[in-house]
Specification:
Length: 314
């Protein structure tokens, strides 16, 4: 994330740098985007810390095999330096000071944030039956496709990212109705697709981000789907229920950590669709899936990303 020519300031004695855009009191409503470069495997702890500090949403900016860059949005009135110091302290308390390499802060005007989402977001055909379109730009003709209207707001998942596309294609191919659980729903796009592809089904969507829950509910209203229950939670909250399909578009590390709970949510012969997985880490996820008693049915790839389809009792 570019820092708009801001100075670099040291945070205490650590190697972390704090890059802050110049701010003036005459500017309109703004957001502070705090970007953090952390070691792989630390995404969950980082996200939890950011939400404790009051972020309105966390997104993945970029990632590779060794590190992940996360972005967290805060109200522009917050003291960005205090947040950065609190993040550093949180890592230090966990004995993981060396797991965070950089913190940068940039300022985004409210209207610029909304425009950023809208630029380049055109109706997109996915698979054989789906088309994803922004709520403000519906396709002239869907040609028999199921239209999913998405207003991303400040949550992840517009259908343009490879991981979301892989999930949508797998859902279209395998989903025949019943009960489906969408873990880490984001904008709700996967849950809404399942609800529209099988209107008589019962869809449950969960996310640990309250903002994502709000966005997903709004998108469900836009799409007029009533067979969809969305709430803040984790898969362990759904272990007492059995789903014909469980979908999780997360990261390899988080999927592996949640595997026991994900499998516990599956009905006999239930399907599991996993995405958000770097191809270099797909083998680790596959071993976790097999070790949990599931059979891998299919693995698909797009760029550096992979999706895995598995089945219980296959």
């Amino acid at each position: 994330m570019k820092s708009h020519g801001s100075p670099t300031l040291p945070l205490s004695h650590s190697p972390i740098h704090f890059l802050m855009a110049e701010m003036t009191s005459s500017r309109p409503k703004t957001w502070s985007l705090i970007s953090l470069l952390v070691a792989r495997g630390e995404e969950e702890m980082t996200s939890a810390l950011l939400f404790d500090l009051g972020t309105t949403g966390v997104v993945t900016i970029e990632e590779d095999e060794k590190s992940v860059k996360l972005g967290a949005y805060f109200d522009g009135s917050v003291e960005a330096r205090e947040i950065a110091e609190a993040i550093e302290s949180g890592f230090a308390r966990a004995g993981k000071s060396d797991m965070i390499m950089e913190i940068s802060v940039s300022e985004i005007a409210d209207q610029d944030w909304m425009q950023k989402w809208k630029e380049g977001f055109e109706p997109t055909e996915i698979g054989h039956r789906l088309i994803v379109a922004p709520s403000w730009k519906l396709p002239a003709e869907a040609e028999g496709r199921v239209v999913i209207r998405i207003d991303p707001g400040m949550a992840f998942g517009t259908g343009t990212h490879e991981t979301t596309r892989l999930c949508l294609e797998a859902i279209e191919k395998r989903w025949r109705g019943g009960a489906l659980l969408d873990v880490g729903t984001g904008t709700g796009i996967l849950a809404i697709a399942a609800a529209k592809l099988a209107p008589q089904s019962k869809i449950t969507a969960i996310d640990i981000d309250p903002l994502a829950v709000d966005v997903a509910r709004e998108n469900a209203e836009i799409n007029r789907v009533s067979n969809l229950d969305i709430f803040a939670g984790q898969p362990k909250d759904c272990r007492d229920r059995k789903f014909d399909m469980v979908v999780a578009n997360l990261t390899a590390e988080v999927i592996i950590d949640l595997m026991d709970d994900l499998v516990a949510c599956l009905s006999d012969s239930g399907w599991m669709i996993l995405s958000g997985i770097l191809t270099s880490l797909a083998g680790d996820v596959e071993r976790s899936v097999i070790g949990s008693g599931l059979e891998i049915i299919e693995r698909s790839e797009a760029g550096e990303w992979a999706a895995i389809v598995a089945r219980k009792g296959a």
